[in-house]
Amino acid sequence: MQYFEDIEIGRTSKFGHYEVTREEVLDFARKFDPQSFHLDEEAAAKTHFGRLSASGWHTCAMTMAMMVENMQNNRQAGLGSPGIDNLRWKKPVFPGDTLRVETTVLEKRRSQSRPDMGIFKSQATVFNQNDEPVLEMVSNGLIKVRDPSAPIED
To answer: pTM value?
Structure first.
């Protein structure tokens, strides 16, 4: 099990494999982002996307699925997240794309108010099958501290 003490600033992880399907793009768009370029091939062809594209929010959901799978495979004492920073959709995601994730730990600190918890920030970049970045964000994670009685360092 990985705890706060095990997180190394600068560590990079590469993981995930998510195949984007037309059916999933349409289903997500119908439910959560019913804009024409996510729902209709002809309408999408007339936009700067040029063809049916996944919602950016769908790209976030696919990213989250890969991140959770990675946390489960690499057992982490995670406690959720207070949010993300600097979310950017860099390129459209299309049916037929295959996505993967790279993360780099930027910083970490112990919580002053909750000594049993640590907080860390990671730069996350999602790439398509051509190694083009399609999404970038800074992810904030909460994680258990192995030894809450250890002093909090500044």
So the answer is: 0.92
